[in-house]
Amino acid sequence: MSTKNDVLGALMDAQEAISGERLARRLGLSRNTVWKAIEQLRAEGYVVEAVTNRGYRLVSAPDRIREIEILKWTTASGIGRRLEVHARLDSTNLRAKQLAAQGAPHGYLVCADSQSSGRGRYGRSFFSPEHSGVYITYVLRPTLPAERAVMITSMAAVAVARAIEKLCDADVKIKWVNDLYINDRKVCGILCEASLDFESGMLEYAVLGIGVNVAPMVFPEELRDIATSIGNECGASPSRSRLIAEISNELEKLYGELETGGFMAESRRRSNVIGRDVTVLRGDARFAAHVMDIDDQGRLVIRTESGVSRVGSGEISIKLR
Ligand code: BTN
Predict the structure, then answer these.
(1) Which of 86, 215, 303, 317 fits 112 for a cystine, CB–CB 3.0-4.6 Å?
(2) Among 210, 226, 317, which is best to mutate for testing ligand 1, by the most ligand atoms less than 8 A from CB?
């Protein structure tokens, strides 16, 4: 970790004013290096008060995504414990795929403050402006047959919903299979991409990408009626670093249920599609359907003119009516 992060960590630990001399001694640095680090933190928006005869006190921190702040709240031991934070990436999923192919361990986390080419499902883009959202991707190495890969998305949806509700007064719904909604608007999208071992039919690895709109945000015209952020809906928005940590913590709690689908009962309870009439999009075709249920394999059970059928997320997407 950098000197600046070390100084920040020491200021956070101290909770009250701490002299430059003590900081320097504790961190094995010169007083001049400590002072330079504090100036850098100030330039980034941290308010560090200089209290006469007592030293420095951290008054407030900007909502920046920082490894040290994420790890302060991370209780998970495997998922999200090893991580990297970038100011800007093309896409955290792309970066995670490169790392996974090079052998990155299970649970490794890639975070970015903004993305230039945030990716959504079906080749769509994901709006990822700076200082506003959580754009993260986990490298996962589950023992799972390819046809059950959708369970990773269902698990993640429950984990993120819990994490948001832990930090905000919100009722988070899941729009099958990869979107989270607050007050009928999308606040989070999930994109899980998997690499398959063709011989065994098992997943080699998966990259689990999660985008959450956090701060109060103004969306581009085309998204205004469908997208929202936690800040827009709840008045206040949580610390993004804390939210990342809580997502890791909830994912780790649910990960053991990946094979049994133990979280599907909660997924159904949170669903905003069960019992609704929807429009199903399959390739270029679209047709009306009634959603009856979501089964334990994460498939949608729908009734159409031709009867009852079960469909996986790879086959269709749906629009609420
Ligand atoms: C969707 O809404 O269709 C899924 C959106 C997934 C967006 C996240 S942001 C972090 C990760 N990196 C990406 O490029 N996409 C996912």
Answers:
(1) 86
(2) 210
pLDDT band at 44 (very low <50, low <70, confident <90, very high): confident
> What's the pTM value of the predicted model, to 2 decimals?
0.88
**Pocket residues: Cβ below 6 A from ligand 1:** 91-93, 115, 118-121, 124, 126, 135-137, 178-179, 189-191, 209-211
Residue limits of CATH 3.30.930.10 in the chain: 67-270
pLDDT, tens digit, 9 for 90 and up, residues 189-223: 999 999 999 999 999 999 999 999 999 999 999 99
Domain 277-320, architecture per CATH: Roll (2.30)
pLDDT tens sequence across 50-102? 988 899 999 888 899 999 999 999 999 999 999 999 999 999 999 999 999 99
Helix (H, G, I), strand (E, B) or coil at 312: coil
Q: Which residues, listed in sequence order, are joined to residue 133 by a DSSP beta bridge?
A: 213
In angstroms, what is the span from residue 120 Cα to ligand 1's centroid? 5
> Which residue is closest in CA terms to ligand 1's atom 10?
135
Residue 167 · residue 246 · CB < 8 Å: yes
Which class does domain 67-270 fall in? alpha beta
- What CATH number should be reported for the domain whose range is 3-60? 1.10.10.10
Q: What are phi and psi of 163, to 5 degrees?
A: -65, -45
Partners of 18 in beta bridges: 56
Contacts of 98 (CB under 8 A, 6+ apart): none
- pLDDT exceeds cutoff 80 at 140: yes
E runs forming strands in the chain: 47-51, 55-60, 83-89, 109-115, 133-140, 172-175, 179-182, 185-197, 202-213, 277-282, 285-294, 300-304, 307-311, 317-320
> How many CA atoms are closer than 13 Å to the CA of 156, on its beta-carbon side?
30
pLDDT of residue 317: 81
Q: What is the CA radius of gyration of the chain?
A: 22
Indicate where the chain has its CATH 1.10.10.10 domain(s).
Answer: 3-60
